Amino acid sequence: MVNVLVLDDDFFVGQIHARYVDEVPGFTALEPVRDLRTARDVIAENDVDLLLVDYVLPEGTGVDLVRETDIDAIVLSAVTDPQVVRSSLRAGALTYIVKPFAAEVLQNFLRRYARYRRYWEREKVGQADLERQLRNLHDAAAVGGTGASPAGSSTTTRILTALEEASGPMTALEVAEAVGASRATAQRHLAKLAEARTITVSLQYGNTGRPEHLYATR
To answer: Which CATH number, 1.10.10.10, 3.30.70.1130, 1.20.81.30, 1.20.1250.20, labels domain 155-217?
Structure first.
């Protein structure tokens, strides 16, 4: 489970973002905080894996917290000054999401981030794999993001969720049944995800000798 701390001086906005987080399998939001001092106290007393921080705060900026911690972070802010965005990324933020945003913008990034986290569990890093992971982390199309139609985004997201929650690789038929889609629709989305290297594809040979594709998240 990825523990997420939301830092936003607007109580209601913080609660909304925390709810977005809780809707993503594998993520749980701690009680949102509204100031840097409280955020530091929470970090000192809890295991925090990811920060969602606003830029503008009464006593400083969320990026101040990003700089002083060794915790992955995302900046969520209405500030669109290019230098502010650049400084946030330079300070160590994984990405910068401009407010207001739809729930799926953050949630799709969290799903990509979940796969990015799993990458670091391996014993060594390969250049090609590393470049692919970094590219997929910021590629909204990898989970049917802003470049896809709403229907495509929803189906792709459900497929990724099903694969992430599965105990092992799944066939196209199993994916279709899990998300309530036809096998042809599931295969079409799976093919796009495989092409984007968001998921892996392997072959399983049955009794008939005819191979069947198995799909899994990276």
So the answer is: 1.10.10.10
